[in-house]
Amino acid sequence: MGHSIREFEEGYEVGRRLLAFRSECGFVTATWGLVCPRCGVRDLAELPLSGEGRIAAFTVQTVPSEEFVNDAPYAYVTVDLPEGGRITGWMAGVRTEEELSIGDSVHFAPGYRRGVQFERGSGASRRD
Ligand SMILES: [Zn+2]
Predict the structure, then answer these.
(1) From the CA of 90, how far away is ligand 1's center (Å)?
(2) Number of domains composing the chain
(3) Is 124 helix (H, G, I), strand (E, B) or coil?
(4) Which has the least CB within 10 A, 28, 66, 68, 109?
(5) Ligand 1 center to 87 CA (angstroms)
């Protein structure tokens, strides 16, 4: 199964599409790589993601990078994926650490800017 750096940049990095990869050994990662870090196999298969997840860790950024200067404060989040593995991203509109908790449901919500953006709640609850 083929996947290219260009596809990765156009999908994952731009934030329009979530990609993860699964190795024959079952290892799942949303981090780009050509080789499984656990068993060394080179044939990683694309794994479709639901876009759902739960917060595994987060921090509120009040001193942003240049690109996010108009969005601060915001949360930088590490999200556990139901498909396995974790992915990092950000959530707009989070001003204090009291607004989020470990285990909160979030969903992938492509925004107007680059990066993997999440919003609160499950994607299913948002579409009702
Ligand atoms: Zn492996």
Answers:
(1) 28
(2) 2
(3) helix
(4) 66
(5) 18
